Hints:
Elements: E1 3-6, H1 28-33, E2 37-40, H2 50-59, E3 63-69, H3 77-85, E4 88-89, E5 94-108, E6 114-120, E7 123-127, E8 133-137, E9 143-149, E10 158-159, H4 166-178
Antiparallel strand pairs: 1-6, 2-7, 3-9, 4-10, 5-6, 5-7, 5-8, 5-9
Amino acid sequence: MVQAWYMDESADDPRRPHRAEPSRPVGLEQLRRLGVLYWKLDADKHENDPELEKIRKERNYSWMDIITISKDKLPNYEEKLRMFYEEHLHVDEEIRYILDGSGYFDVRDKDEKWIRIFMEKGDMITLPAGIYHRFTLDEKNYVKAMRLFVGQPVWTAYNRPADHLEARGQYVRFLAQTA
């Protein structure tokens, strides 16, 4: 099951857990109210998993690739990690399925507080278009993930502030309806 919690305010190494004290865990229902969806799948059978195929068909995820984020596999590793950790949004959903390793997705709640979502092998997450978020590895410094898209991939990240984008406006309206 997914592990998520409110983050502390520390500027320490982002690869650490950064749990707020006292602990403030976040459940699946709270994530759903933010538009964040989560599945637990069997990553060892990702190539022929009927459950993954069902999700892809239902949500029109027609394109996919696999990325490995580690010092020896990703060109410009340090630069890419800094870029992934910069607060940003996308105009399309962001879908990631962890095939190996682990890392953190951080998302903003409706009050602009950071929620950290620990992702490990078998975890799949969908972040809605317009949500401010960021990603970092944990202290193991390794993740292998499947990236899924509806249609052709769009890699554009809009660093904050990006409130002028229609996707952000739609997301803010979504949050107001779920409050």
